[in-house]
Amino acid sequence: MAQLTPMMQQYMEIKQKYPDAILFYRLGDFYEMFFDDALLASRELELTLTGRDCGLKERAPMCGVPYHAADAYIARLIERGHKVAICEQTEDPAQAKGLVKREVVRVVTPGTVSDYGSLHERDNNFLCAVYFTGKRAGLAFCDVTTGELYVTALEDAARDLRSVLSARRPSEILTNAPDRLQGWSDAYLQAYPQSAFSLGGARERLLKHFEVGTLEALGLDSGMQPAASAAGALLHYLIDTQMTDLKHIATLKVQAAGDAMPLDMNTRRNLELTQGLRSQNAWGSLLWLLDKTATAMGGRLLRSWVEQPLLDIHRIRERLDAVRALWEEPVLCEALLEKLGLVYDMERLLSRVAYRTVNARDCLSLLRSLRQVPDTLSLLDAVDAPGIRAAAMLLDPLNQLADLLDSAIDPEPPVNLSDGGVIRPGYSPQLDEWRAAATQGKQWLMDLEAREREATGIKNLKVQYNRVFGYHIEVTKSNYAMVPEHYVRRQTLANAERYTTEELRELERKVTGAQGESLRLEGELFDGV
Description:
Layout: H1 6-17, E1 21-27, E2 30-34, H2 35-45, E3 50-52, E4 60-66, H3 70-79, E5 83-89, E6 102-108, E7 127-133, E8 136-143, E9 148-154, H4 157-168, E10 172-175, E11 188-191, H5 199-210, H6 225-242, E12 253-254, H7 265-271, H8 286-290, H9 296-307, H10 313-327, H11 330-340, H12 346-355, H13 360-370, H14 373-380, H15 386-393, H16 399-408, H17 429-456, E13 462-466, E14 470-476, E15 488-492, E16 496-500, H18 502-528
Parallel strand pairs: 1-5, 7-10, 9-12, 10-11
Antiparallel strand pairs: 1-2, 2-4, 3-4, 5-6, 7-8, 8-9, 13-14, 14-16, 15-16
Helix pairs in contact: 5-6, 11-14, 13-16, 17-18
């Protein structure tokens, strides 16, 4: 370890904390992998394997991916059964003294993927915790992209567990007894310490997260203790891997064993509930026939209804009464579909807020969704069904939030905050001042270019900018004899020379200062929103 370069020492110290994950180590605009991780990733992702001096006799195997395309590569690794630890630079390289500080900010696993490009928008991606205690078992299911959390307790795990797992189809399972689940699911299965399932620790985590005084307030009475242990272990795992407050997981729903019809995997397959026997996808299934939902949220809800048929006759009748009430109003239904077609996937948007990956376009999607609520409520007022009325009572237009988004976010923002232009003009007078200075600076540079062309007689002289050398005056080879003595050479190209002057350096300081302050303030304002 002592022989390694300082950067590789830092890499190894971080890697030792996450030995079972592939470490994506941020270096500038790339995530790099080294040693065994590089060998594995280059094979799985078909990346070119290179090397880097590391202080040892042999170069360290190395490969990398661009940070802006990392989600797609991470998704491919997760599909192949790997974990990925994302290590970011946690301080500005320009401000750092010596080696830039880096920390793992998130561990991505099959059950905690949040890249929407790799997830089916009409299907949940559940992480499951299973706690075995004698014949009984407690289960907790969480979709971190939607904030849903369900728990249930089984009196006879050997009899009932398969049907519960086949209904939720988790992609990852944590358990205190992995040997009892071998071959029961296609999910990524891993043993989790018995201590994480302790009822005392689980109670503390659940009460703190949901801000309640007792487990009974969450519906977890003495008969649900195994489920409480499973939920506590699941939260423990999420806190360890996601490293965020997870406030979008706002409710815990307790499901009794008799709430839904138990159906094993073979029965589900033969009934073709969500997958056709021949097609091996949704085509030809009951879900394919029924799903005319306008939103991704509605699609996921309908799938859960199909996969978990109700047993309670009163709930069945209430649902059917709501369906009949809408079916008898075709004109109203068309109007509702039109409004719902403008609604974004707000459940998964909440997870973007929690993970601090929400962008300006997401904010506008939320705004557009909230603007549909008043008209939707007006349409639902005409429907006389208890289930519809109950749903309508839960709708809130959140006018204060909508007004904030409308006033703060530019209607045509860039994808990346770093490009500038996310905050609407007029929202912040100070930001408007910095932007005006930056814009004025660009005009100053254009004026300088015109003056220098006239003074030197070089008609194709250009004032340009690049990230390495900043602002410069470029003169082609044929005009070298006309370059004034006060021009200071900065760079030689094949067919041109680049120069600077005292006046250009002063303008550069003003322009880049205004641009930098503008972007800094815009970032602060967006964080505030």
